[in-house]
Amino acid sequence: MTGIIVALDGMTFNAAREGGALSTLSQAREKGMIWGIKINDMLYSGDVAKIMTSLRDEFKLGVMVDVKLHDIPSTMENSISKLVNSGANIVTIHCSSNYRPKNTGLLKYIAGVTALTSFTNLEIKWIYDKAHEEIVRAFSDIALMNNYEYIVGSVKDMTLIQDNPLKKICTGVRPAWYRERHDQVRISSIREALRLDADYVVIGRPITTAENLMDAITRIYKEMQ
Fold this sequence. Notes:
Helix content: 25-40%
Number of helices: 10
Distance between the termini: 9 Å
Largest sheet: 8 strands, parallel, barrel
Structural class: alpha/beta
Shape: globular
């Protein structure tokens, strides 16, 4: 079954904790409705190790740390190791980094990012000097060659690489009742993600901006059945 990862972009740890969001998400996780959460800027809202440990031990959430690392190998190795040791289940890196960890035990935590869902085809061509389809396939090959556990991208990107056996995390996914695009260009419906047999879908604002988080999660969970 496809798991739901709730994106907590733009939310500080204290706000999520004191406002009750983390408790609600913990309850949803306990009920089997979500896998966990995706965080990025939340890491910069306090002590990283304490935040990660609390998410893991206090709230019992799966944690995808969406830092999209792209640096020299030693820096990436150190960063990934620290995040994993603090409780991260998944850590994102850019496939274009062609990172190969010396510690192969880290591979099961690595998710390779293909093309950002905010990029237009023109921007991809301008940055990489290749067509969108070419760059997604090339990055997919890098992730597979390096034995990453996951590959990350839009549903439309994933349709280009369906034969890649890595676990697929689809971003830019919207429930049928949510019409806003925000800053994402390549968005898709939950139905499209399910047809692709995505392992996980990342859904943020349809849940985090809802008046009642649990109601929104329940509505999305039922749509996925």
